[in-house]
Fold this protein.
Amino acid sequence: MRILIVEDDQDLCQELKLLLDNAGYDGMILKDFEHAKEEILALCPDLVLLDITIPFMNGELLLKELRKETQIPIIMVTSQNNEVDEVLSMSYGADDYICKPYNPTLLLLRIEAVLRRVHRKLNHYTYRDLVLIPDRGVVKCHDEMLILTKNEMLILKYLIIHQGQIASREEIMMDLWDSEEFVDDNTLTVNVSRLRQKLRSIGYGDVIETRKGLGYILV
Amino acid sequence: MTMKDYLQDKAFIFLFYGMMVVMTLLMLLAFHVNISLIILIMGIDFWFISIIEVFDYQRKKQFYTNYLSQLKMLEEKYLICELIKEPSFLEGRILYQSLYDINKSMLEKINDLSMNMEDFKDYVEMWIHEVKIPLSHLTLTVHNHKSEVSLQILEQVRKLENQVDQILYYVRSQSAQKDYLVKNNHLSQMIKNVIVKNKDYFIFHQLKIKLKDLDYEVVTDMKWFEFIVNQVLNNSFQYSKNTSDSYIEISAYENQEAIVLSIYDNGIGICASDLPRVFEKSFTGENGRKHKKSTGMGLYICHKLCECLGHTMTIESKVNQYTKVNIIFYKNHYYHMDEVTKL
């Protein structure tokens, strides 16, 4: 997935690109703001992150212009923290709107949601023979299928995305909180042991390993 | 202006009038002038003096009575020149002219000041938007390069963000321009947004959050409301006892007139003598003195924003037990959209 960043602060662009690249997207940065519209149409990205305050043209105007020609998903990004701009952007045809300073995880979640809405494709994450399908809330292994709760699914998804490294309890909790599951330390322990139990029924019981004082890892 | 005031003011002149009449009379008597001629001369004297004085009294009375009564009724006293006509007599004209000039120079001065103020507000708003770019950058960098100090840095960034937001909303609450959008919003979604924003604090400090009965629609501006809740939450953080059973509970209920949102924490509380004053500007009270961290602005701004939005904010507390902030959304203050379309 190619995501185009339209933002005039170059340092921020680089950091955003890194965030997107780390998340498995292909981040691109718009260079020529004077011919922004033509440039965007020529690059034909899968999604555009469009800042409202850009040189030569207002982001909202650019959005309006772009919408005359293309239906590329566009997420507006701004530091103007007011609802009027938000409503205006959405009425011009933005797919979503996010305020600076943004929470990086939330930004990624929004991008994922927009892309999913547009492409109507089921996301899935795989680990060995396990296939996790978050939209259905299930994990499959060959012909066997397990139904997971939202928390269990989020934990497994986080571990699969970060396979090969230890995920600390704090990191996993942050991820859960970003999805509006406000769990505390004990609940996390309970959720992990329930997840283990469920996985055990399809022979993956020992796949989540606890590293004392560090966190969890998929082995 | 009464007749008595007028006569008193002119007592000196009347004295001279009297002396003039008496001297004329004595001279006329000394020259043995015919008594009927004396009466005629005296009559003419009295007649003209009376006419002059009555005329003068009338025109002054007309002007000053009008002037004083207008001034009394007028709320913005400086507008008085717009309401009175320039009088015909000299002192009145001098008064009118000086009022006019004083007013003009004052208005120019005020205009200058308010323009400076507007410029300054614009600058502050712009500055805030500028400062959010490095803040975003910092958050992203910390996210991209995780290390053992990430959480600490994020917490400091969050504090910076809160302070910056506080200025933004202070400026907005002071200005006449109303850049808010009041519509139906889902209470639980807004509360969740604020909690997600503060997740680092909750996780890092192992503070528990309980949400109860938040499934209501309220009429408010989402951004302003989230700012208010964020400030109240941050107060709870600051005055938490930081023990393992510390928690914050956010709940709501509905009665006939209103939906009431409560944010409850079992922190150090506020002493009874400080309680009535917590919404005052720059009031820090006992907790502020002990902790030396308070600016006394947070609750003041929240209270003010609530007023602008038509909500009411109240606070209850017991020292060492709890603090509970209520936000009351009155129902009958607004029409519902479907009612409006029906009309």
About this structure: DSSP finds eight helices and eleven strands in chain A.
